[in-house]
Amino acid sequence: MSFELGTTVRLKIVSKDFSGELTDVDEPPKISVWDASKAKRVDSQSSVKEQTGTYHFDLTLDESWGIGVWLYEVRASIAGKPLVARGSLRVVKTE
Question: Is pLDDT at 95 greater than 80 in this prediction?
Fold first, then answer.
């Protein structure tokens, strides 16, 4: 999926236990984001809790960061055990 420069994207984070039930992490997940040139633009920012096991982070796609594939990483822990998830999004500019 592609997202337009200058817009805001809501990254949703869902945490479930082994039985598939929503569960809270020890503290709100931290988000880091790298732009298309691999420059870290967001460094370990906290997400916002919506409800049990559900969090979000609003990422504004700053026009000065450029177009291309941006990478993000989510870090959290449950009972002290680390959790890491990674993903990407394509950032475009339409005229």
Answer: no
Query: For the domain 2-92, what is the CATH code?
Result: 2.60.40.1930
pTM of the complete model: 0.88
52, two tokens: 């049990």
The residue type at 56: H
The tens digit of pLDDT for each residue in 75-89 reads 999 989 999 999 999
Ramachandran region, residue 2 (left: φ > 0; alpha: ψ -120 to 50; beta: rest): beta
User: How far, CA to CA in Å, does 53 sit from each of 15, 43, 60, 76, 87?
Assistant: 5, 22, 23, 11, 19
